[in-house]
Design brief:
10 helices, 10 strands, 292 residues, NAD(P)_OxRdtase_dom_sf, TIM Barrel, globular
Length: 292
C-alpha cells in the first residue's frame, strides 16, 4: 500500500482526516497566507489554524487564492480551527463561530477543536460545540490539550465523544497515558509540535538514523509519527521545509529504529495549564497580525 499526503484516517464519526497536514502556529496573516498557498502547491490537503493564532484571515485568503491556483475546491481540503479560550462558555462559543468562519471564508470547518480546557467553562463550551456540529458548521469536533482528568470530566457530560485530542507529541513528549486513554474511547491523537520545537533535530543518534535512510532528522521524526498512527501537523513558512516535511513516503523505518525514537520519551511538555493567565480568570483577546 502506498502512502502520500492524501492518506487519511477515519475518525469516530466517519469523517476522514489526512494523516499529515500543515500548521500555521506562530505565523502572522501574511506568513500564514503564503504557507497555505505553498502547501496547496505541494499537495497538502489539511491545514490547521486557531483564533488564538491571530491568522485565520490569512489562512482563509490563502485557501481561496491557493485552491484557485491549483484547480481544486474547498471540498478537496480539510480545515481545522479552534475555539479561543476568551470565547469559551456556551453562548460565547455560539457567538464566536460565525466570525471565525467569515475570516476563513467558508461556511464550515472540517474539524473544530476546543483549544484549551478553560477551568469552569470547557463543559459548557463543549455543549455549544456539539450544537455547532449539529448545525453543519463543523464536520467533526474535538479538543486540544486535554489531560485524562479533564477528558473524563468532559465525557461524563458530553453527548458526542470528541473525535480528536490535539496534543504536544514528539519523541520527547509521547503522552503515553493520554494516548492510551484516548484510544480506549476511540479518540485520535493529533500532534502539535511534532518536531519538538527543533529540540530533537540535533540528536546524534537520530542523525545516524537519518544518514542511513538518506533523510533529514526532521523527516525521520515525521515518519516515526506517521508509522505510529499519529495525525501530524508540522508547521513551516519556508517552501523548502514544507516540501521536505512531505517527503516521508518513500521509505519505512525499521522496528529497531522506531524503538529508538520511542526510547527517547521524557514526558516534558513545553506548555501546560499553569502557563496561562486564564487559570487565574483573565484571558487576553487574540490579535490579528499581518506583519506588513
Amino acid at each position: 500500500m502506498s502512502f502520500d499526503l492524501s492518506t487519511r484516517i477515519t475518525l469516530n464519526n466517519g469523517t476522514s482526516i489526512p494523516q499529515m497536514g500543515l500548521g500555521v502556529w506562530k505565523s502572522n496573516n501574511t506568513q500564514a497566507k503564503e504557507a497555505v498557498m505553498l502547501g496547496l502547491k505541494h499537495g497538502y490537503e489539511m491545514f490547521d489554524t486557531a483564533k488564538q493564532y491571530g491568522n485565520e484571515r490569512g489562512v482563509g485568503e490563502g485557501l481561496v487564492e491557493g485552491l484557485k491556483a491549483v484547480g481544486k475546491t474547498r471540498e478537496d481540503i480539510f480545515l481545522t480551527t479552534k475555539i479561543f479560550g476568551g470565547d469559551q462558555g456556551y453562548q460565547e462559543t455560539l457567538d464566536a463561530i460565525d466570525g471565525q468562519l467569515e475570516r476563513l471564508q467558508t461556511d464550515y470547518v472540517d474539524l473544530l477543536l476546543v483549544h484549551w480546557p478553560v477551568t469552569g467553562k470547557y463543559v459548557d463550551t463543549w455543549r455549544a460545540v456539539e450544537e455547532i456540529y449539529k448545525a453543519g458548521k463543523a464536520r467533526a469536533i474535538g479538543v486540544s490539550n486535554f489531560d485524562n482528568e479533564r477528558m473524563q470530566n468532559l465525557l461524563d457530560h458530553a453527548t458526542i465523544i470528541p473525535a480528536v485530542n490535539q496534543m504536544e507529541y514528539n519523541p520527547l513528549i509521547q503522552e503515553r497515558d493520554i494516548l492510551a486513554f484516548n484510544q480506549q474511547h476511540g479518540i485520535h491523537l493529533q500532534a502539535w509540535s511534532p518536531l519538538g520545537g527543533g529540540a530533537v533535530l540535533n540528536d546524534p543518534e537520530l542523525k545516524q538514523i537519518a544518514d542511513k535512510y538518506n533523510k533529514t532528522v526532521a523527516q525521520i521524526v515525521l515518519r516515526w509519527n506517521f508509522q505510529s498512527g499519529i495525525i501530524t501537523i508540522p508547521k513551516s513558512v519556508h517552501e523548502e521545509r514544507i516540501q521536505q516535511n512531505a517527503d516521508i513516503f518513500d521509505f519505512e523505518l525499521s522496528a529497531q529504529d522506531m524503538q529508538k525514537l520511542y526510547s527517547m520519551n521524557q514526558e516534558k511538555r513545553s506548555l501546560w495549564y499553569n502557563d496561562f493567565s486564564w487559570e487565574g480568570g483573565s484571558i487576553n483577546e487574540a490579535v490579528e497580525e499581518w506583519g506588513d
